[in-house]
Amino acid sequence: MTTLFLGALSGLQLTIFTVIYFLLLIYIIYSIFKREKGIDLVSWVLFVILAPIIGPILYLLKVSFSVKNISE
């Protein structure tokens, strides 16, 4: 199922996901400085730190699955 989802993403869809991601990232940073306190602030900070790492991991998974499908 993950292979089908990652393989189905085209360049335009990846661009749209990237734009949405950066808009959400800007909103999160705004929320951190304006409204969030306590554990909510900690969870948002962890998300901001981990989200840029998860994106490249998904991209590498997509590339590795597409290479395996071509070679078979």
Automatic annotation (TrEMBL):
GO terms for cellular component: plasma membrane. Pfam families: PLDc_N. Residues 24-61 form the Cardiolipin synthase N-terminal domain. Keywords: Cell membrane, Membrane, Transmembrane, Transmembrane helix. InterPro entries: CLS_N (IPR027379). The chain crosses the membrane at residues 6-29, 41-61. This is Cardiolipin synthase N-terminal domain-containing protein. It comes from Leadbetterella byssophila (strain DSM 17132 / JCM 16389 / KACC 11308 / NBRC 106382 / 4M15). The lineage of its organism: Bacteria, Pseudomonadati, Bacteroidota, Cytophagia, Cytophagales.
